[in-house]
Design goal:
Blueprint (H helix, E strand, L loop, with lengths): L6 E4 H9 L1 H9 L8 H23 L5 H18 L9 H18 L6 E4 L2 E6 L2 E6 L2 E3 L4 E7 L5 H6 L1 H10 L3 E9 L5 E9 L1 H20 L19 H11 L1
Parallel strand pairs: 1-4, 6-7
Antiparallel strand pairs: 2-5, 3-4, 5-6, 7-8
Helix pairs in contact: 1-2, 3-4, 3-5, 4-5, 7-8
Length: 252
């Protein structure tokens, strides 16, 4: 008797399904391609650049100078521009580049030296029934804490981080006790790096696993509905807005 194969599901797919089933259908079932928002472009270049700089720190035991950081940033600016179809229609490309540079400068100045990484982009995964849900976290630190970094316009509220399901999912994949730090290079009138710490317990992880089992079962049905009550269900926020409206009107 053949053993049933395990299906890998990226955490992003589970998260997308919970936010909007119809968007999940367009991305993961219909394989529809859309333009990337500049905010995603900024985050990816920022994250790619820092990951390479931390890899340098692990390999050579020293922090890269700011010239090397900027050269690395330029490499990923080109790489992401070449591989992402970025929607610049409502945004200024130069301003976006400047935001990434400011975010990297403030991170290198205020945080980088204190971070002691031992592994870059370690994978995590958890088997749930016939599925394996997984992803990656930016860093594992020497003290056993895991770290993600990002770029944003405001700091993360502690209450939001304590309830963040992605953090709970990572804890499920990596094991409890789990300690996690989030760094956000906040771009405001006076740029700064927001630092937040959180933990997860087995009780929190088990609740997430039970919930995710139900989500995966729902995904199996193939039945999807748009989340029209969400603040993200908007012409300016959802790349599938027009397609979704057309599909809804033709189903009536």
């Amino acid at each position: 008797m053949n053993k049933k194969s395990i299906i890998y599901v990226p955490y992003y797919a589970v998260d997308t399904y919970q936010n909007c089933q119809q968007k999940w259908k367009y991305i993961f079932r219909d394989n529809m391609k859309t333009e990337a928002e500049p905010s995603l472009f900024e985050h990816m270049v920022f994250s790619d650049t820092l990951s390479e700089c931390f890899l340098c720190k692990i390999r050579y035991g020293q922090d890269p100078d700011i010239d090397m950081v900027m050269k690395t940033m330029q490499k990923y600016l080109k790489d992401r521009e070449d591989n992402l179809q970025v929607n610049w229609s409502r945004y200024n490309r130069v301003e976006s580049y400047d935001r990434i540079e400011i975010a990297l400068n403030i991170y290198m100045e205020k945080v980088f030296e204190q971070v002691e990484p031992v592994e870059i982009n370690p994978p995590w995964a958890i088997k749930i029934g016939d599925y394996k849900v997984g992803g990656r976290v930016n860093l594992k630190l020497a003290n056993g804490v895991y770290l993600n970094y990002s770029i944003g316009s405001k700091a993360t509220a502690q209450s939001s981080l304590d309830k963040d399901e992605k953090v709970t999912a990572i804890a499920a994949g990596l094991g409890v006790p789990f300690r996690f730090v989030k760094h956000v290079s906040v771009l405001k009138s006076k740029p700064d790096v927001d630092h937040k710490f959180t933990t997860r317990t087995w009780e929190q992880v088990n609740l997430w696993i039970q919930k995710t089992k139900k989500v995966l079962k729902q995904m199996e049905t193939g039945i999807t509905y748009p989340n029209i009550g969400s603040w993200l269900c908007d012409e300016d926020k959802c790349p599938f807005w027009e397609t979704c409206r057309f599909d809804l009107e033709n189903e009536l």
